[in-house]
Fold:
Amino acid sequence: MMLLDKVRDKLQGRDTPHQTIFSVMLVFGIIGLITSFVLSVEEIHLLLNPDAALSCTINLVLNCSVVMQTWQAQVFGFPNMFIGLMGFPVVITIALLGLSRVAFPRWFAIGMEIGILFWTLFAYWLFFSSVYVIQVLCPWCLIVTFTMTMLLAASTYYTISKNSFKLSAKPLAAIQKFIDKGYYQLIVASWVVLMIALVIMKFGSDLFS
Structure:
């Protein structure tokens, strides 16, 4: 028990959980909200004029209007970007409370992690659908996917630092060592690079034509 307390205190004693983590959540929450708003405006333009030239229509591969007219763009019966308009303000609020050093209860941290994980998986389902099924990309949607990736990375770091899932001393110490060596950040960066590589491998020079 003393070892567990020592590891937990070392993790929680860092500046990262209250400053860097919630700063990251705030920045990407704002980016996600702005992106969702722009997509919502573009959706309205498309509804009013199906032939409208949207700001994110760049070429045959990077074309929001094509993606917006697929069933994947309205999975729940309304445009997906409306979810962002509702969800990202919640993320921003959590980030501001965190920066104010509000002590979140364990159930709240777990709920935050589960919620962000769910919507990150949803964003990646849309990403892979765009790449391999629709075979057209929405630039703004790619930003949302990257945003959710960073939010998941931040929230996971937070729940680890608070030991929200009540890990025992040995696995918690192993995770701390893993983080100390910079492997956590390396995994996040490698994942982003992998997603970029998949897009380039799929579309190649057509991305820039």
Notes: The mean pLDDT is 89.
